[in-house]
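Methods: example folding runs. The two proteins below were folded one after another, and each record is reproduced exactly as written to the output file, sequence line first and C-alpha cell line second.
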Amino acid sequence: MDEQNEGSVQVLQSISDIKSSTDVVKTNTGVLLEGGKEIGQEMKILGDVNSEITDSMNEMAAGSGQITKAVEACHNTAITLSKIFTGSFLHPISGCVFLYSCYNKIMYRIAICEDEKVILDFESSLINEWAQGPLCQGDFQLDTYPSAENFLFESPDKAPYDLLIFDIQMKNMNGMELAKKLRQNSCKSSIIFITGIPDYAIEGYEVGAVRYILKPIKKEVLFPLLDSLYQESKKESQNYFVLNQGSDIEKISFDQILYLEAQGHYVFLKTENFDRQWKASFSQVSQSLCQTQPDKVSQFFCLRRGLLVNLARISKITRSECILDNGQTLPVARGLYKDLNQAFIGYFRKNTP
C-alpha cells in the first residue's frame, strides 16, 4: 500500500514535471515565434536596402556612362582645338599662350558706348549680323556701355578692344572726350564715331578716328568698314606675341622681345623696357615660335637648351656668344655658331626691303 502511494506520488510528480516542461516549451516556442517575426522584419529591411543598393548601382552605372560620354566630348573638343590653334599650346593651369601664327583665332573684340538704349540695341544687332558673316564667322566678342563713365569704370578689367564705336553726343562726358582720355592712356584701338552732327571732323583727327558715321546707321556703310578694320587687325596681329593668362590678354610686339628663357617651370620673356614671366612648358613655346611659316623665316633661334633669342635684336655674333642691340650678351652653345649665322643671314635676307 505504501509502495502504491509512493508510486502515485512519483507519477503525479512526473506529470507535474511534464506540465512544467510543456510550459517551458510553450514559452520557448513563443520566444522563437517572436524571434522569427523579428528576423522576418529584418529580412524585409535587408531586402529593401538591397533594392536601394541595386537602384543606386544602376544610377552610378548610368552616371558612369554620362561621364564617359563627357570625357569623349572633351577629348574631341581638345582635338578640334589642337587643329584650330596650330602652332600654339593651351596651358591647363595658368591659361593659354597664343602665338602669332594663331592670334587671328582670338576673338575680334568690339565695344559700343551709346547712352540711348534704342540706338544701342540697334547698333548691337547690326554688329551681331555682321559678325555672323563669312569674314568673322562669329569669332567675336561685343560689350556695350550706356555711358562714357561706365566704360571708364568697367573696361579696364577686360582685355583690350580691337574696335571702339562711340556716340559723340552723350550726356556728361561725350564720346570725343572719352576717346581723348583713352588716347592719353596709350589706347591703340580703332575708333568709329557715330553722330548726328558732322562738325567733329577736326577733333576726330586728333584722336585718330577711323571714320564718322552719320545717324541713322546703315549696314551698307557699316559692314564694309567693319570688313576693312577686321582684315587690317588680322594682318597686324601677325607681328605680335599674344600672352593670355586668365582674363588678362597682352599683345607684345615681336620687335620688342629680346629673348625668352626657361626658369624652372616658368618662361621668362625679356624686352628692353619690361619683363614677363608665366608658368608654362618652355619646349612648347620654343617649338611654336621656331616653326617656320610658309611666308616667313622664323624670327627666333634656340641658342642653347632653354634660351631663345630674337634674331632681329642681334647686332653681333661670335663663336661663344651673341650681342644684342641693347648691349646684353647671351651664350651660344658649342656647335651652334654656324647654324646661328645661317639663321641670322636668312632672316635679314627675307625681311630686309
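Second run, written to the same file directly after the first:
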Amino acid sequence: MLQKCKMTRFLGLLLWLSFPTFSYAQSEVDLVVVDKSKRAMYLFSGFDMVKEYKVALGKQPKGHKKREGDFRTPEGWYMLDFVIEESSFHRSMHINYPNEVDRFKAQSRGEKPGGNIKIHGQKNGEQRSPSFTQSFDWTDGCIALTNEEMDEFLDLVPSGTSIYIEW
C-alpha cells in the first residue's frame, strides 16, 4: 500500500510538471519540493532543478502534521502564498497549511490543525552558527534555511509557487 501511495504521488508530480507554465519566465522557479527524509529542498523551473538546500524541520519530522503543537512539518501539496518581512525569524514565506482537507481531518478528531507554517531563516538574535542550527531539526513545524539562503530563496521563488512536501 505504501509503495502504491508513493507511486501515486510521484505520478501526480510528473503530471503537474508536464503542464506548461505560460505565466512565468522559464528561468523562474515554479515548483518547490521538500524531501523531509533527506532534509532537502529542491527548486525547479520546468523540468530543471535549479537549486538544492539543506533544511531543518519540525522537531518531530516524520509523518504529516495532524494537530497544533505536534512539531511536525505538513506533507502534501500546498502553495507559498505570501512573504513576511517582520517576524521572529529572518524573513519568511508562508505555506498555506492547513488546507480544507487538513481542517476537516483535524475537526473530525476534535483537534485544531495548527497553522502559521513557513519557510524561514534563523531565529532573530540567534548566536549559534547557522551550520550548527541547520544540523538538527529545531522548528515547531516550519522549514528552516540559513539567513543567506532565505534571502536567495525569496529572490528565486515568487509568491503563488506550488510546494510539494513528502517523507
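Comment on the second run: The radius of gyration is 16 Å.
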